[in-house]
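In line with agreed milestones, work has continued on tokenised descriptions of protein folds. One protein thus recorded appears below exactly as we store it:

>
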Amino acid sequence: MANNYAADASRTLEGDPRLAAEVPPRTTATRPPEDAEVVSGPAGRSTTAGAEAWANGFAPANETESNLLAAAEESNTDAFLSTLLLARVILPVPPGTPSSARPSDHNFPWQFDEMDGQRFVSCYTSPERLAEHGYSRFGGDISSVSLRFVQLIGAWPGENVSFAINPGSPVGATLPGSQIVALASWAAEVGLRAESSAEVVIAPKKAEATPVMGVAGAPVAGAEHATVMQRTVPPSQLPYYLERGYDRVSGFVHRASDVAHLTTPHALYRALGLSHSGSPFTDDDEAHVLRWVAHRAELYRIPYGGQHEAGMRAMQGWVIERAPFRGNGFAPGDTDVISEFKVDSVRLPHGAQMWRLDRSGLGSLLATFDADAARWVRTDQGRGDAGGITGA
């Protein structure tokens, strides 16, 4: 019943010990050959053509399943995992388990499933998938609880227990326990956590390794205790900052450490989904980015939502934006998995910086904000590492 997501993602994670402990795979999986195992149908036969034919008669029950199906058809591991990380799931539990029970509770009654000699915890993305395949797996005597996927993996029972999502369906996959533990670690690191409300906020993160430099070259006060954020500035807004002393930032932003490896305009635009039709980011010769210390983490919220009201409700979110917005907490790029946050208009702190990136991969610091004088102070510092103010 397994498709190739587990194999693709495991190879990516296992190829780098550091990566395995911190992040999900960044590289989009390529489509497998025609005879590759993708997903198992009811009879257990697993070919790409057979899986696609089976999926032709499949009706997704919600937007999560639509996104999972699209990712499965494209063999896109990143999209599949990204969808799961922001999804709600239904977890079977023994009869009599309170609906308020959570895996993090002491003595939570895990319902284990045996498949091919391995122990699994299975969950589902809709009541329809649970009714089709879940009840039969547990003899029809089963209850369930609903929770976010990040809650589930955050309390995973151990690396020796594998994970199955929607087993027996076209939106099904299996993941080894070691990868679930790695995903949980990464989700905690980037601030993905479930709240009782839809307005999920950025979680505290360890300090950046390299401090932000102020106007006179001294570290900005408090930078060692806060997160550095970055926003790509549209060309039309650049004069407002540098010439008119504009001191606010709003919209979609990213952790500077998450995008430090994107040192050219082309790489930055591709990874953040800024190359779409009608985008103001069309010049690959140079790009400009703001970097500042985000002292109040609660202002930077994960933008769950959709491109219309129905999509926003399906994600239990709070944001409606036009395409290419995905509403799953990640930038809509096609090269990297980058956590995305949204902030309403906030005032930039003293020491905020404006950087210029060029196509060679070098960056130059153009100006630093002086809050006392309410102006941007031009700098004559030379070129250097485009990631200048962030750590690894």
